[in-house]
Amino acid sequence: MAAEGGRAKPAAQSRMENFRKVRTSEEEMPLPFPDLPPDVVEMKVKEGSKIRNLMNFAMAQMELKGRRQIVFSGCGRAVTKTITCVEIMKRKLGGLHQVTKVCYKTVLEVWENQDPPPDGPTQNLTVHKNVPSICILLSRDPLDPNQTGYQPPEHQREVGEDTSGSSTKGLKRPLPPPSEELLPKKLQVQVSDSPRGSGTTADQLDH
Q1: What is the DSSP letter of 59?
Q2: Which end of the chain has fewer beta carbons closer than 10 Å to its terminal beta carbon, N or C?
């Protein structure tokens, strides 16, 4: 029956309004760069991260502690912010070699029913989402210029540029398009009935 003054909402949408996202965790993946030092700093950029806080820490690592390499990583809505952080650091420090890798990773979301049946168990939804992910390595030391995603320091690109378009020196290597297995897949949804208060803890999901 249509609601007075407007259209009735679809049943599925109406049911989802009763659910609230309570936990989110990302799939742990090794960094896609060989021969990294064991103590390399990885800046994991989140959607809600403050760029100023990220850059203060990252700049201190590179300038005060003399780090030679640093990695910025982010997925989903944090990809744009990750790239912004990288561009800020390249502009401030200069002379940094860059390698960019793109892929997809799995994000796990747990949604809890806020209006469970009065005589039934709490119903949770577990959603697996494949989202785009980016990892960017910045290095003071030279990197292999033949690897995919390599980008030389800014000053090297400026020297190698040719306005006639005949020179290819200093141009970044283009990233290949994601292969079919990396294309977004359908969401996998699992419904679990559990007694109120039971289930996987936040610590278990975050790790």
Answers
A1: H
A2: N
Backbone φ and ψ for 198, nearest 5 degrees, come out as -105, 175
Residue given tokens 């030679």 in the structure block: 68
Tokens found for residue 103: 């892929």
Q: Kindly tell me if the per-residue pLDDT of 195 is higher than 60.
A: no
How crowded is residue 4: how many other Cβ atoms within 10 Å of its Cβ?
5
From 35, 31, 34, 26, select the one nearest 43 (Cα to Cα).
31
State both tokens at 38.
Answer: 């064991």
Residues 53-78: tens digit of each pLDDT: 999 999 999 999 999 999 999 999 99
Give the whole-angstrom CA distance, residue 111 versus residue 180. Answer: 29
* CA Rg value for the chain: 23
Q: Is 5 left (phi over 0), alpha (psi -120 to 50) or beta?
A: left
Q: How far apart are CA 123 and CA 111, in angstroms?
A: 9
pTM (predicted TM-score): 0.65
With contact defined as beta carbons under 8 Å apart, do 84 and 55 qualify? Answer: no
Of 142, 174, 170, nearest to 156 by C-alpha is 170
Amino acid in the structure at residue 43: M
